[in-house]
Amino acid sequence: MIILGIETSCDETSAAIIEALGNNSKVNLLSNIIATSLSFHTKTGGIIPEVAAREQIKYIIPVINESLTKANLKLSNIDAIAVTIGPGLIGSLLVGVETAKTFSYILQKPIISVNHLFGHMYANFIKDENLENKEIQFPALSLIVSGGHTDLVLIKEHGKIEWLGGTRDDAAGEALDKIGRLLGLTYPAGPLIESLAKKGDSKKYNFPRPLITSNDFDFSFSGLKTAVLRQVNSLPSLTNIDMENICASTQKAIIDILIAKTIKAAKKYSVKSILLGGGVAANQTLKDELKQKINIDLPSVDLFVPNKKFCTDNAAMIATAGFFNQQILPWKKTEANPQLYFD
Ligand code: KG4
Ligand code: ZN
Q1: pLDDT band at residue 23 under the 50/70/90 scheme
Q2: 120 CA distance to ligand 2 centroid (A)?
Q3: What pLDDT, on a 0 to 100 scale, did the predictor assign at position 104?
């Protein structure tokens, strides 16, 4: 089955083509094209929805054309179209959804509605020659850590999931971006904080780790942001060393919380695999520390982390999630839903 995936939930415009063989194997990626309006948002310190939507309109057709050319296919070779219907920015989402509906009508091919958050989980099901490519065993636990979300989800089998908990306020990536902003770093701050943290002392500041021992699988990161602000304000000036230490201590606090909750959920639900996903999963320290903790506490559990390019937003993960969760509606009933979450 050949699927064209379309992702336009935020500032990335992406189209990808996958070839899926069966429910038990990972999918083959034939092309994955991404255009981004990030440079506009770096200047303003955050995403301006109107600007993101305008750029989506400019990029969408060229990006789809390029995905077909790169895969050496024609539109007539496509069996189905998978599109992100939410969550995300309404203006951006509409560009992808309306384009997918048009193609579905013209080509008379089914359209699969995809939850963007499922996309982040299913980035782990893309075949990648650079990774081990072990088979993912169920039940699996997925930790989604992105700019907009922090969620723990139990995947019992394809199409059968249970949401265990999520953030009550800021997402992990959002906390990093907001802390970066108060440190004067450009948007998105996650990668910059990671590189500054490498030179800093993660024990220098003992920032709070909200809800780390709570009996649920919820997260809270807004108190951490306030604690960092208080620390910055108490310093006579912000030297390079201060910056490095604050970044290292902030990153450590976030990673400690993410790992504690993930390990707790993995034990409670006796999972066989842990799947990371979302932009923050690109963080090498998070991956290394989680791997270390799993090796000690849960040696029979396998950790899966997508290649860095599939952690941040892309259409390959949307096409893949669409294949394994075929929610097919007539094109007339397919609609963008910016508030979509887990039911
Ligand atoms: O998944 P994503 O591309 O977009 C959303 O769906 O939100 O995630 C973007 C988030 C941003 O908050 C960014 O700061 C964070 O991922 N991020 C990182 C790293 N790379 C991106 N956070 C920590 N370390 C990184 N290396
Ligand atoms: Zn995302």
Answers
A1: confident
A2: 6
A3: 97
Task: Please indicate, yes or no, whether residues 201 and 329 belong to a single structural domain of this protein.
Answer: no
Arithmetic mean of pLDDT, 298-313 = 96
**Does residue 67 form part of some domain?**
yes
**Ligand in nearest proximity to the CA of 147:** 1
Q: What pLDDT is stored for residue 164 in this prediction?
A: 98
Ordered DSSP codes for 270-331: T-SEEEEESGGGG-HHHHHHHHHHHHHH-TTPEEE---HHHHSS-HHHHHHHHHHS--EE-G
Q: In this structure, which residue's CA is closest to atom 21 in ligand 1?
A: 279
Full residue range of the structural domain in which residue 61 is found = 2-128+310-333
pLDDT score of 131 = 74
Strands 111-115 and 80-86, bridge-based pairing: parallel
**Ligand 1 binding pocket mutation candidate from 225, 280, 284 (most atoms within 8 A of CB):** 280
Q: Which of 118, 196, 198, 312 to mutate to test the pocket of ligand 1 (most atoms within 8 A of CB)?
A: 312
- Residue 135 counted as domain residue: no
Q: What is the maximal distance between C-alpha atoms in the chain?
A: 66
